[in-house]
Amino acid sequence: MKTYNLCLLGFGNVGRALLILLQEKTAELRERYQIEWRLTGVATRRLGWLANPDGLDVSALLAGQFELLTTVASGDDVRDWLSAARADVLFELTSLNVDTGQPAIEHIRAALEHGAHAITANKGTVVHGYRELQALARRQRRSFLFEATVMGGAPIFSLFASSLPASNIIRFRGVVNSTSNVILEEIERGKSLEQAIQTAQELGIAETDPSADVDGWDAAVKVSAIATVLMDTPTPLANIEVEGIRHLDAEQIRAARAAGTPYKLVAQIEKIGEGIRAFVKPQRLSPPDPLAAVTAGSMLAHFELDTLPGLTITLDVPDYGPAGPLGPAVTAYDVLADFIRAVQSEQRG
């Protein structure tokens, strides 16, 4: 049974949740999937490039007792670090750069060239580097996987890859940004936009700078990823019509809810000839529309296919907050699932 050397690049909430999940699933990974693992590398701006091919103390790391970690010389860049850690798998969990996808793309490239599987939650790697990185992964006979980048907790990319062969998307519609949905619901309850954003921040849902969610860019990046991967049409952000919820009047939002036609930030992609039209914008939705019923913390993706009239995937979150299903544990699960898929692919040869 192979023991996989795991490296974490980025050790924020998702990285911590992933290590906790790996610890919880250790016996199941061994008995069900024939996977043993050890953590041999962690890298952050604050900690630097930490590596030990014999394994780092996960409990000490989670407890913040970094002085107890035994490390070896690991250089001062990602390639030296991967070599020092003898990495079999890189979990790339750094922050999104919407404009270029860097340095995450270079991190993934380095991992694949080193001979490691590369698994990421960073949408920029898909939007700006998908074709290059997938081609490199095939040449290296390794996996580049990214389920956590869109609708964390819902199987979007893996579903099409494994269960829907020869199915082509004609149209996609979805509510794929839960933060904007939470803000809209808080406004419906009587708050101003600023108060709703503050509530979302206090709950740990919105970032300190919420503009990516409020102005529609987080949803647009997900639209680009879906179009690029599932519709084989690379779609730069400049080609997506983006309108957020910032300009909506609070009374307008509350009146729409009272009329039974609530506002949702809708993401849509539609095949038009050889190309596509894609947008993100707020729309009033009537009850027959499945998107109208999406509750605050939940997300929904609806696909119309050439083989199926409609396929809906819902991540249903009855409540939201930092300790709820919207938290880092959901993203961490997607990363873990990709790890298992990568190993299974390797085991099949």
Automatic annotation (TrEMBL):
Record keywords, A-Z: Amino-acid biosynthesis, Methionine biosynthesis, NADP, Oxidoreductase, Sodium, Threonine biosynthesis
Q: Give the residues the record marks as binding NADPH.
A: K123
User: Which Gene Ontology terms describe the biological processes this protein takes part in?
Assistant: methionine biosynthetic process; threonine biosynthetic process
Q: Which pathway does this chain act in?
A: Amino-acid biosynthesis; L-threonine biosynthesis; L-threonine from L-aspartate: step 3/5; Amino-acid biosynthesis; L-methionine biosynthesis via de novo pathway; L-homoserine from L-aspartate: step 3/3
Ranges for domain Aspartate/homoserine dehydrogenase NAD-binding come to: 10-147
Report which reactions are catalysed by this protein: L-homoserine + NADP(+) = L-aspartate 4-semialdehyde + NADPH + H(+)
Membrane-crossing segments per the record: none
Its EC number is: 1.1.1.3
Residue ranges of every copy of the Homoserine dehydrogenase catalytic domain listed in the record: 155-340
What InterPro entries is this protein classified in? Asp/hSer_DH_NAD-bd, HDH_cat, HDH_CS, HDH_short, NAD(P)-bd_dom_sf
- GO molecular function annotation: homoserine dehydrogenase activity; NADP binding
- What residues form the catalytic site here? K222 (proton donor)
Protein name, UniProt field:
Homoserine dehydrogenase
The organism is Dictyobacter aurantiacus
